[in-house]
Amino acid sequence: MASLYKKPVKIVDRSTGKKVKTTSKKWWGQYKDAHGRLKRVPLAVDKSAAQAMLNQIVQRVEREKAGLVDPSEEERKRPLADHLREFESYLVNKGVTTKQMRETIGKLKRLVRDRRWLLIGHITPGGTLEFLAQLRRDGLSAQTSNHYLRAAKQFTRWLLRERKTLSDPLQHISRLNVRSDRRHDRRALSQAEFERLLTAARTGKRVENIAGADRAILYVLAAWTGFRKGELGSLTLRSLRLDANPPTATVAACYSKHRRTDTQVLHPELVNQLREWLATKRGIKPDEPLFPISGSVPGGVERKTNKMMERDIMAARDAWLAEAKDADELEQRLQSDFLCYCNHDGLFADFHSMRHLFITSLERAGVTPKMAQTLARHSDIRLTLGIYTHVELSDCSAAIKSLPGPPRGGGDGAGEKSVA
Description:
The protein is mainly alpha-helical. Helix content is 46%, strand content 9%. The protein is built from 16 helices and six strands. It has helices spanning 47-65, 73-77, 80-94, 98-115, 125-137, 142-161, 191-203, 212-225, 229-233, 268-278, 305-322, 327-335, 353-364, 369-376, 381-386, 393-401, and strands at residues 3-12, 19-32, 38-42, 240-241, 248-251, 262-265. The strands form two sheets. The chain has a three-stranded antiparallel beta sheet with strand order 1-2-3. The longest helix is centred in the middle third of the chain and has 20 residues, at 142-161. 22% of the residues are buried. Residues 413-420 have low confidence and may be disordered.
């Protein structure tokens, strides 16, 4: 049974300075919750008001026992900012990288601030869609809009799993088709372009405080392993097994995009080039980053690898243009996409395009799609084939030429049976 009582307390008697026992000014209520646990709560100074408050609590308990009370009711009364802080802690405890956590929380806070949402119940599909539409009206791409939506949906799914709400308000919002609004698609360099890029890097000055020879071997390693910038930046001497059979390079789980240890087999010629390059790095320590290009790696520095790539490919193109024998040839080369950082189709040859080159090279070598997906470390083969594999006009020409020639016809039709 629920009951009212005055809580025993000790106070200091001002006249004597001694502690004396007395009772609280407020009435307290004692009751059992829906799970049978004894609860005590402060109510009010007035006994009638306290009794009314206790009656409400008892009624709510009875409704909860009957399954008529929303268990998330109290959570929905809390400020949305509190839930965001708890979600941030959840991401940290889950092992999400600091960069990814900051980007996700930053997008959520911008959405919440723009919509002036204060409680969970304020989150609506319409408000979210209006915010995303405004982002696109301000010039941001469909891809960026999808990144904001992904962060918002991740948050609302977490609210549902934690029983802070009974439904996911953003469940039925779909992401946009980024194919209709691509801003930074990439292309795979041809073999001739890649060779000239390496020459320009080796003979060039330092860019982003990375020497030319170091940039060249970095490009080779990226294009022959498919490792991403952060993964390459995490490699140390301990990551390489050049004398193993087969030789490998391993990325620790904490630096892999998918949070798992990734081991890639190395091409024999890549091993030779790595040995030659490492021979010039006698003072490097076993746990020191070979390529200090990522700020997320201890000892590393965040470098603008796209700037490196742009400088080197522009230098390679300038050298190629200078080889023109006359004005007509120079004009033809100026109109060409050869060694363009961004070609006429708006496709970029930035640092991440080295990964595109790796996967496209697998296709050009006739590697099966399943093996290409495995080497690319993709969970979905559609990503391997649809985004990272680039088929050029020359590839299409070679495929057509491999077909048998069409017959000319004109035969006597021997062996054919007439149909009555």
